[in-house]
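User: quick one - fold this with zinc ion bound?
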Amino acid sequence: MRIFDPHIHMTSRTTDDYEAMYAAGVRALVEPSFWLGQPRTSPASFYDYFDSLLGWEPFRAAQHGIAHHCTLALNPKEANDPRCTPVLDELPRYLVKDGVVAVGEIGYDSMTPAEDAALAAQLQLAADHGLPALVHTPHRDKLAGLRRTLDVVGESALPPDRVLVDHLNETTVKEAKDSGCWLGFSVYPDTKMDEERMVAILRAYGPEKVLVNSAADWGRSDPLKTRKVGDLMRAEGFTEDEVDLVLWRNPVAFYGLSGRLELDLDADDTAATATHEGNSILRGAPAAAPAER
Amino acid sequence: MLTVTELRAAVEQRLDETGRAWLDGALTDAATSEPRPDAPGPARWELDFASAGRHVRTPATGRPVTADRPGPDGLGPVDLPDAARVLILHAARADAPTVARLYAHGTGAERRAVLRALPHLGLFAGADAVPLVEDALRTNDTRLVAAAVGPYAARHLSPHSWRQAVLKCLFTGVPLSAVADWERRARGDGELGRMLGDYARERTAAGRPVPGDLDRVLAMTRALPGAPRALTREES
Ligand SMILES: [Zn+2]
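Assistant: Sure. Structure tokens for the protein plus zinc ion:
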């Protein structure tokens, strides 16, 4: 089973997680920039974080045979803090980078006017840079939040088929699907979705345009939830091809809209290339990518 | 090390029509750019520098791994974005403040390319870019460390920093072949010999293997009279 986790915050995870994810079949992931659990007080703090998502974290992932891409944005929570909003003006410099496959996570937290402005501005940035957008839906007042999100997307220059709405559940999936957006589900140990409900939703709505992620971060979460959903799908009668569609081809298709997805693990970024292959660092002899499915 | 002309030929040979056209445009743009101190935002060629990785891919995808071996010129397909960025910096005649800015705002790949470009730029003769090399040597990204210990480091790093860099390469598994001009700088360097000897002892005491490259450098530190003799017998 090959797995692409389309939403996971590896900055907060350990090398044990990387090893377990690789063993479970994870070969690619996207790390959205988000809130760090601790408020930042200046734009420079964001730029160091972006640098990390574009340098150090992809290197760390590559050491474990996993391709790492990121999405960059000012997150909705910190969009409310005037000390952080100058990040919006600097984002264009980062959105041109090769490893950036979407603008995100954007969306609503408390549905404030500042969040309205940041969401609209960043949907426009996505359109300007040929990037899709990862839009999360708020944890509180979820259905109202989804509707307001879809309204803002509808008014934006970005067509819905370049938008992934995330953290969906039973109450929001229908309207999100009707909007034409891609559908993201975060499977968590005790909040958001669980494996059984996820499989029920897949049965009810089909696997088309559905992405399943662990959204694992610094909170109680599980980076192997993607695999667990895949296993339960098989146990519940979904075909291998349907599992592959949800856990690999859909994320590849969505982030591939950026034109920047690089899944040649045998190329530039494998651990073996960097540390074990003699002079291959400078000469470019590739290390074999783990080809196991 | 390839000259810029050789590097360009090696890159172009590996690109398809689209990639070659993109590179040609980017290099022309960089070569004709004027200083624009008051203009807002990055120059066009700087955006090309940032986005080079997605324009100079090898045409084939899903190719067998064996097809990725470096050619006789030593350039492998995985070097293409680095090489294209080096060519762009060279065409733009990037000076020390420019490379410092691009390094500071760069991804890991962009930083690596800046470091690899240093010997090809007019700034090579001066020590202004040493802070970039030292920054890269502080990271734990072995690809950056490897790019940092090129000809520019060989020429400009202080003896102390250079010895620390060699030790770090041995520590992190960066191959000795990445360290430019190491034979010349290591020759007769008794202090480096002492550091390597201590490191070897520490590894042995911990029951860990001593990196094979260590012996080669250690031998070179003793290559001239004046290298510390006491180490000679103890370490062999
Ligand atoms: Zn998240």
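One thing worth noting: The beta strands of chain A are 3-5, 26-32, 67-72, 100-107, 133-136, 163-166, 182-186, 210-213.
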